[in-house]
Amino acid sequence: MKYRLAISLIGLCVFFAISFHANAQKPVPSKLEYSIHYFIDSTSSLSIDQIQEGGIQQIFNANPLETSNFGFDHRPYWFRIELTHPPSEPLMLEINQPSLDYISVFTKSSKDSVWNEQKAGHAYSPKTNDYGGIVYAFPINQDLENQTIYLRVETVVSMAVPVLIKPKSEYNTHQMLRMLLLGLFFGLMFIMAAYNFLLYLFLKDTSYLFYVGATIMGLGTSLVLNGFGYYLVWPNSPALDQHIYLTFGSLSIVFSSRFAANFLNLKKFDPKMNVFLWVICFAGLVLAILTLFYTATDLLLYGRLLVIITFPSYIIIGLRNYFKGYTTAIYYVIAWIPYMLGIVLMTFRGAGLIGEHWVTAYGIEFGGAIEVVLLSFALAARIKGMRKEIAEKELEKEQFKTRLLSEQREVLEQKVEERTQELQAANATKDKFFSIIAHDLRSPMIALQGVGQKLEYFIRKEKLEKLLEMGAKIDQSIDQLNHLLNNLLNWATSQTGGVPHHPTRLDLHALVKENIELYRSLAESKGINIVCEISAKYVFADVNTTSTIIRNLLSNSLKFTRDGGEIKISTQQKDGLVELEIEDQGMGMDKQTLAQLFDSNVQGQIGQRGEKGFGLGLKLCNEFVQMNGGHIAVKSKLNIGTKFTVTLPTA
Fold this sequence. Notes:
single chain; five-stranded antiparallel sheet; rod-shaped
């Protein structure tokens, strides 16, 4: 980075030293003085002899040349150059405007009777220009009639005619210094482009690639404007100059707009300006395409408007982002200011708004030389900022890893705690059901012990009433045992995820009727009336799990309803769902019992006739209702009754 800085500074110093020296070689007024007057040939047909007429000479006298730039004007311009003193040696007349199409220089010596004409211009082959090379230079004999030179210029581009007259002995040095100046500029631009391309290959940062593109396109524009393209590359195609310089310039806008967006990180810091620069990029691309079909004259207004909008906006956007906290933007702003000024000066010079001066003639070259050096500082600051940002990200990454490990440890500990609680709950449930199996499963079995001996005894004694009573107890014990075994089997299956579940269109009315018939004898033995009012017949549910739900709820109602009571089973349809209600006139429940009704740890209640409840049926009901996409609710009042509401999807 230090070597690049040193080389850039040395190159810039040499560039300016030579440029100022070159411009110091202007004619000294005491040695060579001349005045210039001009006349516009609106007829485009006047000859050198007709120009000598008195009326036209008076027009010359009335139009002293104040600026050599007349903007875009297709009419021929005549210039009368009068030397103040007779020259002591041969002279060179130079016109440093490679884009002028037709230039004729007329001189007459005291011995000649006719005017001597020398021709040059963009419309002719550059190889015929023996002296000027990329500019137009004409040798002038020191023997001049009346110390007067006439110059006729006609062009389709900007009518800028910067005239310079120097002694021939000094002209070669002047030309050499100018070529050295331009060579240093072009070399500096090319070296910086190549260096930053290598940086792009190393860093893979597209900002460098866009910078290289903008630099190369700017270099191409300057080469064309200074006549090198026409002189060296396409000498037989002068019309190409009317397209190619604007093509290079518009592509320079394309690349520089994307460079600005990337370098200033507009996507992050200023999204609106990022969109604006995309519009500029698109406008530059459109202009580049149009240059393939139209000349610079046709696209004059579009091109100048785009330049005037684009380049100042770069500085404004850079300042916006600097004040938003992106400190690297200040390097960008400082770097672009001289180059932008050079482009604006060139644009105003081409429009004839400002006169000819070495600053306006080589504004892009001077601005570009400063810009490439200052942008090298900006890119160096960017690299430094990137390294700092990478280091900060690495530190942040390490901190994140530490924080993540800590959080993962906490999450793991929490999961272990939750899993421990789940295992403890599972063990409690297991102990509960072992207790059920150990105690409640044994109770009905004990009731069946000795039944054979009692039956034999009652038969011998012919005690029919006792036999009927004994039969009822046997039925009750077997029913209780069967109900318990079914629930235990269903619960065990649900815990292993093995419950078959095949929802289909289910006739709820038929299913309820089927389960009522299962408990018909039990209901009749207790004198309980079961009322079935099923209005919504069909639901979308699994038949087996739904049957288990109905069976458990109906069994509970029979168990807790007083003898001679009533159980009502009804349905109603709401919002695409079917509500199945089973309401009894049983013992009811208090608020504490309701709050933990579906908890696996709840203890079973004793029925009206001493029937033992196991607390398993309602847990199964809750799980099976959820499995079918519904939910279960309960309302109860102590000593009044209970109503269970099961909601299922309608079919």
